[in-house]
Each structure stands twice: as C-alpha cells, then as structure tokens.
Design brief:
404 residues; alpha/beta; Rossmann fold; Dihydrodipicolinate Reductase, domain 2; 2 domains; six-stranded parallel beta sheet; globular
C-alpha cells in the first residue's frame, strides 16, 4: 500500500497527541494528514505547522468528506460525538480509531458495530493498554492458563481534578448535552476509564476481546458542582463469576495510583501495590511457588494504538480493542449509572476547598477508599457515615440505556 491518509477529528486537547505523532513520525510509518476537523482549531498547539504543510481544516466531518477522502479517521472529540462521527467516517470509506470510551450508551455502540459490519471497515477504540506490549504479554499468559482461574481484580485511582478541569468545556461532568444527548462524563468514563476497561479486557478469552459483565452495583458520589459523579466505587460480576472492584475519585487532595491487584488461583498480579514492592510502575506476577515474573512497565502516554491501527489497515496486525471489547466498559458504566440514579452529595461539612482554581476534596475520602480497596468492600459495606448503597443491576440482555 501507499501512504495511509488520515483525517484528524478534534485536534485540541488529547487530539494534540495524534497531531504531534504524525507530524513527527508520519513519514516513518507511511502516514500523511489529509485534513483536520475542529470548530475551534486554535486550541491545537501545532496549528501553525499544520497550516505550513497545507493541511485543510474543516469545522465538521461532513464538510471534509464533500471534497476529500481518508483511509483512517482518528476521532478525539467529546464522548457524545463518538457515535455519529464514527458512523459518518465509516459511511465515507474511512476506517476509524476513536478515543475511549466507545460512546455514551450501549445502543450507540451497537449502532457503530452495525455500520462497521455493513461497510466492512475497521474500528479501533483507544483504550491504550490493550495495545501495550507488557499488558499483551500478561494477557497472553492468562489466556494460556498459566496464572490459573481469575478470582478477584481490584483497582484504586485517586486523581485530583480542580475546577479548571470541569470548566474546560461545556460537557465536562455532565450527563446530557443541551440537546438531550447522553454524555455520561465522569471519573470512571473518562480520566480513569482505562483502568476499568483493563480488568474487563484482560479476562477476555481472545487477545482482542473483553469478558462480559453480567451484574453491577455502584456507589456514585460528588463533591464538585457537576451533574454527574466525581467519585465511584463499583463492583462488577463477570460471566465467569469473577469479581471486579473499581475505586476512582477526583475529589481528593493528593494523587495516588493507579494501584491494582489481580488475584488468580496460581498467582497475584500487581501494579504499584505496596504489598508487592517489586510492582512499582511495573506489571509483576508473583506465583504461589515464589517465582516472580516481570512483564515490564506499560506506557501511559503511548501513541502505539495509532501505529497498530495503521498496521491493521495494512493487513499486518489485528485491532486489539474493537468495539466488541469496548462495549464491556460502556455496559458497566451504563449499569453503574442506573445503580445510583441520583448521585449522592458528600456532606458539606467534610468538603474542603483549596487553591485557585479551586480543588474540592473530601476529608477522609482517601483513607476510606484505601481501606475499601484493601478489604475488597464498598463504602456502604464499611459503614462509612456518608455512604449509601446502590441497587444491583443485571446486565444480562441489557441493550439500551436507560433500561427503564
């Protein structure tokens, strides 16, 4: 094949990473930019270089396709645009690499799958650890049965975000946009979404699949003045009866994590967990016979997903995170939102406000989440005063959000 032509959709924010990667390494990988789409292109820090190279810039994707074509559309737009823009790209002959999550609702992901199948093109979702060599090596051993049957996987992510984070756009922290389209932006569906998806994807029976979640119960809270939640504690039961626990919050003062422990019959996998010192910034498996295997350090900022998707288009590789894998995460998020339909407000007396822009954080939340993570329980099960249990939601046969 000749050079792969790419249209970049949303070139500000995270999209800057794709712009930079292709500008710097596109020749090496046989990739060229056919155009860029962004109603506010001035937010791209590489805009001058794009213009200098004569890259045409459009305000929407439909305008691009009126006069142009592309082998690949790389979509970095907000969550509520993912479905429509993916379908537009596919219907105009472009394969797609769409940033995580796949979309806001499961019905939108099913619509994306149907269009992909009709057009016989490829769609990759940018959950980047799915493309990472260290992670792939670990998953390969799990698929071979070397670690035994999975028992429980748990992850803790404490990532503070101040009000600048929530004021950076008109959709941050919102459930719906002004037209009524679902967004479901949250700590678990955006900044830390990778680490929830990792647990589902890791247990998939093939290298490119996730395990199916069949039940979820979630406790969702907020300290910030937003529509949706900034704090989540989620328990998922998978089709093979493995328990997944996910604790993530933006309402803390100090950053910690991701930290995780994945328990199997024959080994324990850890990352940054203090109980396994060797796991500092590394994926480490400690087997029951004392053997320790070092899988290496996953690269959080890797753009490898772009180059691997290019390889898939050229027929040299597979799509490591297709829509069928990503929908497991969307299904979990949709179930979690139904488990706690009314987001629980933290009591005002334990909310602290520091700095400018203001960081809203909850006194005692870090300690509470560390305890829950260590014990494998939800906050309401720890009898924490502000905690409220969520409803148990079945995900079997779940095809539409909201289900009721």
């Amino acid at each position: 094949m000749g050079k792969i032509s790419v249209v970049l959709v949303a070139i500000g924010g995270y999209g800057n990473n794709y712009v930079k990667a292709i500008l710097q390494e596109g020749d090496k990988y046989g990739v060229e930019i056919a155009g860029a789409v962004d109603p506010y292109p001035e937010t791209c820090i590489h805009l001058d270089e794009l213009k200098a190279r004569g890259v045409p810039i459009f305000s929407n994707l439909e305008e691009f396709y009126k006069t142009n074509r592309a082998d690949l559309a790389v979509i970095s737009s907000p969550i509520h645009f993912h479905c429509r823009q993916t379908i537009t790209a596919l219907e105009n002959g472009s394969n797609v690499l769409c940033e995580k999550p796949a979309s806001a609702t499961v019905q939108e992901v099913y619509e994306m799958i149907a269009t992909r199948d009709k057009t016989r093109l490829r769609v990759a979702i940018g959950f980047q650890w799915a493309y990472d060599p260290a992670y792939i090596s670990l998953k390969g051993d799990i698929m071979k049965g070397l670690l035994g049957r999975p028992k429980r996987l748990k992850t803790l992510v404490l990532w503070p975000r101040n009000m600048a984070y929530y004021k950076r756009s008109n959709w941050a922290g919102r459930k719906k946009d002004d037209r009524g389209n679902w967004i479901l932006d949250s700590v678990a569906n955006n900044a830390t979404a990778h680490f929830l998806h990792n647990m589902l994807h890791l247990l998939g029976r093939t290298i490119d699949s996730s395990i199916k979640p069949i039940e979820v119960i979630a406790e969702l809270y907020r300290a910030n003045p937003i529509e949706n939640f900034d704090t989540s504690a989620i328990r998922v039961l998978t089709e093979d009866k493995t328990e997944i626990l996910f604790y993530a919050t933006h309402a803390v003062k100090d950053q910690l994590g991701p930290i995780f422990v994945y328990e199997f019959e024959s080994a324990t996998v850890a990352y940054n967990d203090p109980t396994i010192p060797e796991s500092a910034n590394k994926l480490i498996a400690r087997f029951k016979d004392g053997y320790i295997k070092d899988y290496g350090s996953p690269n959080h900022s890797s753009i490898r997903k772009l180059w691997k998707t290019i390889d898939a288009i050229k027929g040299r590789d597979i799509v490591y995170c297709p829509l069928e894998s990503a929908i497991a995460h969307t299904l979990t998020i949709n179930g979690a939102q139904e488990s706690t339909q009314d987001i629980v407000e933290f009591p005002e007396e334990i909310i602290r406000r520091d700095g400018e822009p203001v960081l809203n954080w909850v006194d005692g939340l870090e300690e509470a989440f560390k305890y829950c993570y260590r014990e494998g329980i939800l906050p309401s099960e720890a009898n924490i005063s502000w905690a409220k249990p969520g409803k148990k939601i079945s995900l079997e046969g779940y095809t539409r959000f909201p289900s009721r």
